[in-house]
C-alpha cells in the first residue's frame, strides 16, 4: 500500500463525507489561470516520466475513474491530464448504456475487460459506478439486467457497493492503483454550461434532452453520489471530490493528486542483475 497522500478533497474513509458541505468552487486564494496552467504542465510532464518508469518496471497499473454530473468537465479534464503523456502508455474507455452483450454478464464484467495492464494508465470516463448512480436514480433500468433476485429497498445498492469495494481491493492487491475523481459541479454552473452549449453552434452537438431529464433528478443523484463515495472511498481506492466550477483549478488539482500518489509508490527502473550487466557489456563490445 502506498503512503497516503493528504488532500483537502479526499473523501474520508469513515463515511463522514457530506455532499452539502463539499465545495464546488475553488478556494479564495487560488492562483491565476496562468500559474495554474504552469502547474498543470509540470504535473503532466512528471506523469509522463512516471508512466515510462512504470512501464519499464512492469509491476503497477494505474486506473483513473471519473464520475460527474453532465457538463462537469470529465472530457476536458481527461484531455488535460493525458495530453503530454506517451499515447502508447494510456487508454481511455467511455462507458455508455450497456449493450445486449454486456447485459448478458454481471455488472463488473465490461469494465474488467477494459482494465489497464501493468505499466499503463487506464482511464474510465464513467464506470461501474453508474450501476449505483444512474441505475439507482432510474430503477426501471434494472428490468433489462435480468437479475434472478432483486433485494427489497436499499439492499441492492448496498450489495453493489460491497461488490465494488471488494473488486477494487482485489485490484489494488494485485498492482492496480485505483484513484477516483468526482468532479463536483454546482447546479447553477451546470445550467450556465448547458445554456452555452445551446447558444454556440460548435457546442450544440454536445447537448441532449436526456441531460435535462437527469438534471431534474439532481437531489437523487447527490444522495446516490454521497452514499457511493462514503461506501467506497478507502485507503486502497480513494475518492476525491474536486470542485469543478473552475476548470483550470479542477484540471491542475486532479493532475497533481495523481502525481503525488505515484510518487509515493516504489516506482523505479528494474534492477539489472550482475550476470546481465556483463552480458550488456559484451553486447556493447560487439556493436563497436
Ligand atoms: P458527454 O459529456 O459528451 O455528454 P457522456 O459521458 O455524458 O458524455 P453520453 O453518451 O451523453 O456520454 O451518455 C452516456 C450515458 O450512458 C449516460 O447517461 C450514462 O448515465 C449512461 N450509462 C453509463 N453506464 C450505464 C449503465 N451501466 N447503465 C445505464 N446507463 C448507463
Ligand atoms: Mg452526456
Describe the structure.
The protein has 288 residues and is of the alpha/beta class. The chain has one domain (19-286): P-loop containing nucleotide triphosphate hydrolases (Rossmann fold). Helix content is 46%, strand content 11%. It has a five-stranded parallel sheet with strand order 2-3-1-4-5, with helices on both faces.
What is the topological layout?
Blueprint (H helix, E strand, L loop, with lengths): L32 H25 L3 E8 L5 H9 L7 E5 L5 H4 L5 H4 L8 E5 L8 H4 L17 H19 L2 E9 L2 H13 L9 H8 L1 H15 L6 E5 L3 H17 L10 H14 L1
Parallel strand pairs: 1-3, 1-4, 2-3, 4-5
Helix pairs in contact: 1-10, 2-10
The structure holds adenosine-5'-triphosphate and magnesium ion.
What distance separates the N and C termini?
Answer: 45 Å
How many domain units?
A: 1
Q: What is the CATH H-level superfamily?
A: P-loop containing nucleotide triphosphate hydrolases
- Total strand segments: 5
Helix content: 40-55%
Order of helices and strands: HEHEHHEHHEHHHEHH
**At CATH's second level, what is the architecture?**
3-Layer(aba) Sandwich
Order the strands across the largest sheet as they lie in space: 2-3-1-4-5
- Total helices: the number is 11
Proportion in β-strands? 5-15%
Structural class: alpha/beta
Low-confidence stretches: none
The Cα radius of gyration reads 21 Å
What value does the average pLDDT take?
95
Bound ligands, named by name, code or SMILES: adenosine-5'-triphosphate, magnesium ion
Most strands sheet: 5 strands, parallel
CATH topology: Rossmann fold
Q: Report the principal-axis shape.
A: globular
Q: Which CATH class? A: Alpha Beta
